[in-house]
Amino acid sequence: MIHYLKYRNQEQIGTFLGDWHGEVLKAEGMDKIIDVVIPVPLHKRKLRKRGYNQVAPYARRLAVHLGATYEERAIRKTANTKTQTKKGRLARWQGNRKLYTLTDPKAVAQKNVLLVDDVITTGATMEICAHALKEAKGVCIYLCSMAVVP
Hints:
By secondary structure, the protein is of the alpha/beta class. It has helices at 2-7, 12-27, 44-50, 56-66, 89-93, 105-108, 124-133, and strands at residues 36-39, 69-70, 75-77, 100-102, 112-120, 140-148. The longest helix has 16 residues, at 12-27.
C-alpha cells in the first residue's frame, strides 16, 4: 500500500490510513495530548517531481482526529538527497544532521508535537527532524508512522 501511495499517485491511501490510525490514537487519549502534527517534509525538487508529499494526507487526517493544528511548513528539508532505503542507520545519520531545519520556532514552542513519517526504517530521519524541532523552547516530540521496518 505504501509503495502505491509513494510511487503510484494513490494519495487516498494516506487519507485512509490517517483516518484509521487517527481513530486509534484518539481512542488511546492522544487527542488530549497532541497540539501540532508535522509531516516529515520532502525537498522542493522531489515535491515538484512527485507532485505531493506522501505523508501529508496521512498527517492531515491525524490532525483532524486529534483536534490538533496541522503544520507542514514548520520543518524544511535543506537538500535533495537520494533514496535512503538502501542505506544503514549510520550512513543515513552521518552528514545529514542539518538536513532539516526549523523554520518557525514559535509555531512549536511549548507544544506537544506529533512528528509523522511514512516508514521508520532506522529512525535516522525522525531523529534528525526531532533535533531540528528541539531548537524551539519547551517542545515535546512524539513520533508516528504508517509502518516500521523490524
